[in-house]
Design goal:
The structure holds two protein chains of two kinds. By secondary structure, chain A is of the alpha/beta class. Chain A folds into three domains: 2-126, 3-Layer(aba) Sandwich (Rossmann fold); 139-204; 207-365, Rossmann fold, CATH 3.40.50. Helices cover 54% and strands 11% of the residues of chain A. Chain A is built from 15 helices and eight strands. Chain A has helices spanning 12-21, 34-43, 50-64, 84-94, 111-121, 128-155, 164-178, 182-197, 216-220, 228-234, 248-252, 261-268, 280-292, 307-323, 338-365; strands at residues 2-4, 25-26, 69-73, 100-104, 208-214, 237-241, 297-303, 327-332. In chain A, the strands form two sheets. Chain A has a four-stranded parallel sheet with strand order 2-1-3-4. In chain A, helix 1 (12-21) links the parallel strand 1 and strand 2 (25-26). In chain A, helix 1 (12-21) packs antiparallel against helix 6 (128-155). Chain A is globular, with a radius of gyration of 21 Å. Chain B has helices at residues 13-26, 39-48, 55-67, 92-95, 97-104, 124-135, 140-162, 167-176, 196-199, 208-214, 227-234, 244-258, 274-289, 306-326; strands at residues 4-7, 30-33, 73-75, 78-81, 110-112, 115-117, 188-194, 217-220, 264-270, 295-300. In chain B, strand 9 (264-270), helix 13 and strand 10 (295-300) form a beta-alpha-beta unit. In chain B, the strands form three sheets. A four-stranded parallel sheet of chain B has the order 2-1-3-5, with helices on one face. By secondary structure, chain B is an alpha/beta fold. Chain B folds into two domains: 4-162, 3-Layer(aba) Sandwich (Rossmann fold); 184-326, Rossmann fold (3-Layer(aba) Sandwich). The chains are: A alpha/beta, B alpha/beta.
């Protein structure tokens, strides 16, 4: 059977490996392009959010490539993403495709359903023990990908030759792609980190530091967010984002100790006192955390018409005022053009630079 | 002078107002309701609310602006869950509403943001009422009395709507009596589905219901289907939606389509409404599976003119009438 999955940043490397390890044929979805978007927009409801449209387009593209089933995640709301599966399935059926969208709901909402679906993807003849090993191995691959990506954004603002870090990252990603066993993944990660860390750098720079929060899909998919982290990195800005697929960094790497979901909600508490689905409350809480860590500015990325992030945006001015950090909100839809986003980014960077100079001057005068 | 509590005449107002009013009045508070929506409300709302919000949220801001200098409290309950039903909750905009108001409107009086999560148990509503009552210094017996009367008022209101009244007619009837004689059966019956705050607010829906009546169609809504019948239809969904009002609209749509109670369905939606992006397409797809049920979507925003809506309604009604004749 030919299986596919949604394209989300660089995670396709791990998902491809997982599907192949299970003995199916993986149809790797192409990176979202103009064509993906056109296809998606044509068949999606007008006010569905951009992740919905991109996934719609991706499914249609992979169907052309021969995929028979897609595996994706569900949710318990009230973010619309949890209902994507039902809608995609209904719309694809309407279009006359014999294509199944298999949705894994969070196991705690229905264990039985979760096990049933696992059993469906587990190949006959493979024992549960081996099955779980395969899952674990590929999860570690996913973690490794997150780690090298994280490293790339930390090194990028210091690179001397523009583009070095990204090239090194791609090399490391290829090495991970080729790694088969657990040991090979560990080795590839070790080597990859070395390659990225060893590019020529100018450590005397003091780059602006920007935190990126927002809705998970547009934060994680560079093709949808106009490669914002790479663009900023190559402009000499240090960026850190709060959302990672394995949330590896959230638990382990984030500066100054461990920060968990609970703390993020605590931080958001004075401004937003309710879980509003998606990453709405995280956007607020993490803004406070980044401000406390001395970041210069924040960028909130969200799909146009995203319910939780609109609420977060409405509350953001108050947060920004009270914790003293400028926030740029960028809503992305199929009409958003790269040039417009770049202009806004440049203006925002100018503002942050001036703010920093002002602060330095005040410190001198005092 | 009694404490004045303000209730914005919007959003959940259309579902729970009799409860709130009775309860607060029995506690000895003065209830001040904002006036029905006008152009002014809309302008105030658009000026105050976050730009990307939908019209209903903007209108709510407008109603709060109208009340803010006239009252000591504004009652903005945070509706989280009103029944235990899968993962059902409300649109994130309802969940964050009190926080949003505080962030966007200056000089607000205190906001009474009672959190309502009734999935916890059967006595949860009483516990919440007790909390609110104690906040205003009422004793247990007084709170109990207010609570019982409030529940009774809400029951009456719901029964009136089940009997075929629209929200404003039912409220009018409860205040002043009269209006019980149901009008004669018209040629067509149309289900107007969508959120109560779009269907029962005659300003924002451009007087849609009355227009339909004038064109010769009886109007039925989701509130006219009993909860039991709705739950029976719920099974048709592969997965329940997350939003209370969307679920109600969808279940009602299934009921009317499946039981062939109507000649057509009109879905009223607010421009850029998130849950409706899903709900609208779902209704459209499903309507084709039920005998090609005629289906019309009316989308409303700040700029919607009545001319365009009238034309579409007329065309829809004409089509239904022709269909009738052909059969």
């Amino acid at each position: 059977m030919k299986l596919t999955f949604p394209h989300m940043g660089y995670s396709y490397v791990a998902f491809k490996a997982l599907i192949n390890d299970l003995g199916y044929e993986a149809v790797v979805p192409p990176e979202p392009s103009k064509r993906t978007m056109d296809l998606g927009v044509r068949y999606s409801p007008e006010f569905a959010c951009i992740p919905f449209k991109v996934l719609m387009g991706t499914y249609l593209e992979t169907i052309e490539m021969g995929a028979e089933m897609a595996i994706s995640s569900g949710g318990v709301g009230p973010c619309r993403a949890g209902y994507y599966g039902v809608m995609h399935q209904k719309i694809l059926n309407e279009l006359g495709y014999d294509f199944e969208v298999l949705i894994f709901e969070p196991p705690q909402s229905d264990y039985l359903d979760f096990i049933k679906k696992l059993r469906r993807v587990k190949p006959r003849g493979m024992s549960w023990r081996v099955f779980i090993q395969v899952l674990k191995k590929n999860y570690s691959k996913l973690e490794a990908i997150d780690q090298i990506e994280h490293l790339m954004y930390r090194i990028m603002p210091y690179e001397i030759n523009k583009g070095d870090t990204y090239r090194a990252f791609n090399k490391a990603l290829n090495m991970l792609d080729e790694a088969r066993t657990k040991e090979e993944i560990e080795d590839a990660l070790w080597e990859g980190r070395k390659i990225i860390a060893r590019i020529p750098q100018d450590r005397s720079r003091n780059p602006l530091r920007i935190g990126i929060v927002g809705e998970i899909y547009v934060v994680l998919e560079p093709a949808v967010n106009f490669y914002i982290q790479r663009t900023l990195g190559e402009m000499g800005v240090y960026t850190d984002r709060s959302i990672w697929l394995t949330s590896y960094t959230q638990k382990n790497v984030i500066v100054e100790g461990k920060i968990g979901e609970h703390d993020i909600h605590q931080m958001a508490h004075p401004y937003l006192n309710e879980m509003i689905g998606g990453h709405g409350i995280n956007s607020i809480g993490e803004t406070v955390i980044y401000a406390n860590q001395g970041y210069d500015g924040m960028i909130q990325l969200a799909p146009f018409s995203c319910l939780p992030e609109i609420m977060a945006k409405g509350i953001m001015p108050r947060v920004s005022r009270e914790v003293g950090i400028p926030v740029l909100t960028i809503f992305i839809d199929e009409q958003t053009a790269a040039a417009g986003v770049i202009t806004r980014l440049e203006a925002f960077l100018d503002l942050l630079k001036r703010r920093r100079e002002q602060k330095a001057q005040e410190a001198c005068n005092a | 002078m009694p404490v004045r509590v303000g209730i914005p005449r919007y959003l959940a107002y259309f579902s729970y107002y009799p409860w709130w009013k009775t309860f607060f009045e029995e506690l000895g508070l003065e209830v001040i309701t904002s006036s029905p929506t006008t152009k002014r409300t809309l302008d105030d709302g658009v000026a105050e609310a976050v730009t990307d919000a939908c019209i209903p949220i903007k209108l709510y801001h407008g109603h709060v602006v109208e009340l803010k200098d006239k009252v000591d409290f504004i009652f903005v309950p945070r509706l989280v869950k009103v029944r235990k039903f899968f993962t059902e909750t409300f649109c994130p905009k309802f969940l964050a509403l009190p926080d949003l108001l505080r962030a966007s409107i200056n000089d607000l009086p205190e906001i009474l943001d009672t959190r309502v999560d009734l999935s916890q148990g059967p006595f949860e509503l009483f516990r919440i009422s007790k909390e609110v009552g104690e906040r205003f210094g009422a004793g247990l017996s007084r709170i109990s009395r207010a609570y019982l009367l409030a529940c009774k008022a809400l029951r009456r209101y719901r029964n009136l709507m089940l009997g075929g009244m629209l929200a404003d007619e039912a409220l009018e009837h409860m205040e002043n009596g009269g209006g019980t004689n149901r009008e004669q059966k018209r040629e067509l019956t149309i289900a107007v589905l969508g959120y109560p705050y779009l269907i029962y607010d005659n300003f924002i829906n451009l007087d849609l219901v009355n227009k339909l009546r004038k064109m010769g169609a009886d109007v039925v809504t989701a509130e006219m289907v009993s909860p039991r019948k709705m739950l029976r239809e719920a099974k048709r969904l592969p997965k329940q939606m997350f939003w209370h009002y969307s679920n109600r609209a969808m279940h009602a749509a299934y009921y009317y389509m499946n039981r062939k109670r109507v000649d057509g369905i009109i879905h009223v939606t607010a421009f850029i409404c998130g849950p409706d992006a899903m709900l609208d397409r779902l209704m459209e797809i499903e309507s084709r599976h039920y005998d090609q049920m005629p289906f019309l979507t009316i989308s409303i925003d700040e700029e919607t003119g009545s001319g365009g809506v009238d034309t579409r309604l007329e065309a829809f009604i004409d089509m239904l009438k022709r269909r009738r004749v052909q059969e």
